[in-house]
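hey so u asked for the seq, here:
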Amino acid sequence: MGGLGVAEILFGRSSELALITAFVQRAGIDGEALLLLGEPSVGKTVFLDVAVDAASEAGMRVLRAAGVEFEADLTYSGLHQVLFPLLDEFGRLSAVHRDALNAALGYGAGPAPDRLLVSAATLTALRQAAATTPVLVIVDDVAWLDRATAGVLGFVARRLAGSHVGLLASSRPEQESFFEHAGLPSHELGPLDEQAANALLKSCFPDLAPQVRQRVLTEAQGNPLALLELPVALSGGQRTATETLPVVLPLTGRLQALFASRVLGLPARTRQLLLLAALDGTRDVRVLQAVAGPDAIDLLAPAEQAGLVHVDDQSDRLVFRHPLTRSAIVELSTSGDRRRAHRLLAAQLTGQPERQAWHLAAAATGPDEKAAGLLEQVAHRLVRRGDATGAVTALLRAADLSSDGPSRSLRLAAAAHAGATMTGEFRNPSQVLATACSANPQLAGSLPAATVAARLLLNADGDIDTAYRLLVRAIETSAGPSDVSDGTMIRALQTLMTVCYSGGRAELWPAFDEAIARLAPHIPGDLLLLSRTIADPARTGSQVLSELDAAVSSLHDEADHVRILTISAAATFPDRLAGCREALLRVVRDGRPNGAIGTTVSALTSLSLDDFSAGRWDEAQQLADEGLDLARAGGGEWLLAWIFNHRKAVLAAARGDPDTARALADEIVQWAAPRGACLAETHARHVHVLMALGRGDFEDAYRHASAISPPGVLASHVPLALWVAMDLVEAAVRTGRHTEAAAHVTAVQDADVAALSPRLALLATASEAIAAPDDLASGLFKRALAVPGAGRFRFDLGRVRLCYGERLRRARATTEARAQLTAALEIFEGLDAKPWVTRASSELRATGRALRRDGDSLTPQEREIAELAAAGLSNKQIGQRLFLSHRTVGAHLYQIFPKLGVTSRAALRDALASLPPEPQDEYRGDDR
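ran it, C-alpha cells below
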C-alpha cells in the first residue's frame, strides 16, 4: 500500500476542510492561532497540507516546521526551521532583536539570549514579514519541539491579533509537551465516522467480504491509516472470508511502528501481562490475576501511565485505548512467548471448552489429540450456530493436530462437507477432500467421501443421478448404526434426501426409505419428521402433524441452525412456515456475517415462500433477489438457485409480466432437464399454470397442471401436486372435462389433503365447490371461505372468492356475486395482481354495467367478450372462460363489430379505449 493520500483522508471530512480553509482566511486578515489535535495517522499532517495549499492560493507566505523526537534536546532547533527562510530579513530588525535571534539560532557570538527577548524578537520578525505578505506558520508535532522553541511559539501564538500572521500546529491529545497551549483555540480531529470509514474501505478494497470489512472497521476505529493497512496484512482467504480471521489482527510494518513505540518502553513483566490480555480476548482482570497473581493490577501501572490501557472498575475488564495496541503487543512478542501465554490461559479455562480448545491448539507444536478432539467438538457447535468459516477452520486445524492418518482424513472430510454444505462453494472443499483421500487412501469410496462428493456434484453442476448412485452404494455398504453416532450416516442421509427430493421422481425414494427403516432407532427425530412431510406429504404428512406443530413451537428460542432449517423444511408443504419465521430470520442474521451462504440461502427460500403465501409480495421479491445473488456467489448451489427463479417467476406471472415469467421458467427447464432434476421442471410448469389461469387460457392451464399431477391422481412424491390441485380442477371444469375434475376432487378427498393446513383446506373445499352441481356449489364455497386461518393466504383467498363470484353470476345471483367479486378485486388490487384484477373487473362489469357508443349500447356480456377478443383470445378460449359455446361467442362478435364501428378483431382494442368513461358506482349501490 502506498502513502496515505489527501483524497483518502478527506473521506467524510467536509466540515474539517471548511474549518481549516476558514481559519487560513481569517489568519491572513487579522492573525490567529489554532492547535489541531488528533491520534496518530488520523490525518493531521494532511490537513496541514490542505492549509498550505489554501494559504498559497491566497497569496500568503508559508513557514513550515516539524517537531523531531531526536532533536528535542537541541535548543531552538524547531525555531531554526521556522525562521530560516527569514534570515535575510533579520537586517531590518533592531540590533537587540537581530542579535538575540542570531545567537539563538547559532549565527552569532555571545551568551545565550534571554528567552523572553528571543520570543519578542520572533514575534517582531513575523509581524515585519507579514507587513507586505500575510504569513502562515505551520508546525507539525509540537509535542516533539525542544523546550526553548515550544516556549517561544507559545508566546507568539497568544499575540497574533492584528498581525496578518497565522500559526497552525498539530499534536496528539494528552501528549506531554513543552508547548503551552492552555487557552489557545483548538480542534480535535476525530476518527472517521462509520459511514465515511465504510466508504473508504469499499473504495480501496471493493472485494473485501462484508464480515471482514466490519471487523476492520471495528479494529481501526475510524483511523484512516489503519483502515488502509489492516486489509493489506490479511491473506487472500481472510479478505474473502474463506479463512477465519485471527483473534488479533496482524499489522503491517507501518502500523506496527505507529502503535508499538510506547509498548517497547514498558517493563518486561508488564508486556507479558498485556500479551495475556491481548490473547485472552475477554481481557477479564480475574483471568489475568489467576495467571499472574494478585499483583497483576500493579504490574499494569506502567501501561496505564503510558496511556495504553485502563481498568474498567465496573466490568473488571482491561480496556485497550485502541484495539490495534493489542495487535502491536502480539506482533512484538516471540512465538515462544505466545505459546507460553496460550498454555497459561488454557489451564484457566477448563470450564470453557471452546476457548480452551483454541488456546491448546495455538500452544501446540506438533500432534495433540486432546486439542484436536476439542476442536472437532467446537466445529460441530459452530455448524449449529451457522458459523461456516469458523467450523471449517476448526476442523482443518483439528486435522493438522490429529495423531494419525485416519483421524486426519476423517476430519478433513468433515471440513469439506461443512464447506460444501454451508458456504455453497465447491472448489476449496474439493481440494480438502482430495487431501483427505491422500492422507488415507481407504477413505476413497467410503461413506464420508461419497457424502462430500455427492454434495460437491450437486453444488457444482446439479448432477442428480451420479450423486444418487454414489450415495446409495456407500450407504448400502456402510457398517450401519455405528456410523450414526459420529454423524457420518446422518450427513449421508440428509444429502440423499436432498438428492431424492430434487430428483422429483418416485423411483428414487425406496433406497432412502430402506436406509431409514434399517436405522430408524438411531435416526434423529427431526430427520424422520422431515422425511414424512417433504417426500410425499399428501400421503404421510397428516400422520405427523402434532409432532410437527410441537417441533415448530420449540423453535422460539432455538439456536441450532441445522435444526431450524430441518423443521422449517418439514413445515413447508403443511403450511407451517409462519411459525418458523423468527427462527429463520435468526439463521439469516447469523449466517450473513459468518460466510454461511448455504444455510442463509436455505432460510431465504423458506422466508420468500412464506412472504408470497401471506401476500407480502414485495418482500418475497426482495428475498428472492438476495437469495439468488448469494446462491450464485459460491460458484454453485444451483439446487437452491432455481428455487429463487421459481419464486420470481411466480411473482411475475401473478403480477402480469408474462415475458419475465416465461423467460425464468425456460431457464429453469434448460438447467433441470439434462440433469434429471424433475422437481425443478414441475415448478416451471407451475409458472405456466398460473400465467394461463391469469389470462383465462384454461386449455393451456389444464395441459400444464395435468403434467404435474394427472387428473384423478395426486402424483406420488410430487409435493407440488398439493399446490396445483385447485388449478387442475378449475381448468378441467372450464374446458368441459367434468369427469376429470370430479376424479381429481375425489383423489384430494381420499388423501384428506384438507387436514394438512387451513390453506389446503381452503383449496380442497373450493375444488369440490368448483366441480359440484349448482345446487351444492354455494354451500361448499361458503364452507371453504369459513375455514379458520384461511384469510392469511390472501392470493388463494382472492382466487376462491373470484371462482365463487363467477359461479354466482352465472347462476344470476347478481347481488351475492358482486359481494364476492368486489372482495376478490380488492385483494388482487392490494397485491397488484394485474391479470386477476382484469378477471375480477370483467366479472363485475358483467353483473350489470352498461357501455354506450354513439347511441348504441354493449350489453355487459358483449363488453366482456369484446375485451377478451381484444386481448387476443380465440372464440373457443372466450367460450371456455364464459361457459359459452364458440358459436355463441362468434354470434356476439357479429353484433359487437357494428356497434363499435369496426370490422375486425385488430381494431377492437382502440375502439374500446375510445369509449367514454363508465359510471364508477353502478355496482356499488344497494345491491352491494
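DSSP finds 51 helices and nine strands in the chain. Confidence is low (pLDDT under 50) at residues 1-7, 849-855, 919-928.
lmk if thats what u needed
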